[in-house]
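Title: Comparing notes on inverse folding

I've been comparing how different people in this forum approach sequence design from structure. To keep things fair, I'm posting one structure and asking everyone to reply with a full sequence. Here's the target:
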């Protein structure tokens, strides 16, 4: 039985919660999601010395681009190869 994920859900998660890697957890890309989450948390801690804000901003751009890629079909499958519906 296929466990199809929804394109709309994945795209919206990427746009609104992407800095935490939520969309990648949803799609099953756990390694990438953990990287996004850790980088965001480190960036938030380092925001005290300003450089962390650039890290968080970079992760936000990365997540926004992935959200756009999901909506345009460039990312069309989850980690198991099932198509997004």
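Reply #1:
Here's my take.
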């Amino acid at each position: 039985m296929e466990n199809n994920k929804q394109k709309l859900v994945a795209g919206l998660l990427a746009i609104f919660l992407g800095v935490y890697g939520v969309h990648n957890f949803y799609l099953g890309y756990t390694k990438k999601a953990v990287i996004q989450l850790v980088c965001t948390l480190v960036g938030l801690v380092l925001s005290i010395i300003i450089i962390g804000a650039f890290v968080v901003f970079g992760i936000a751009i990365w997540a926004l681009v992935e959200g756009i890629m999901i909506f345009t079909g460039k990312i069309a499958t989850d980690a198991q190869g099932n198509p997004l519906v």
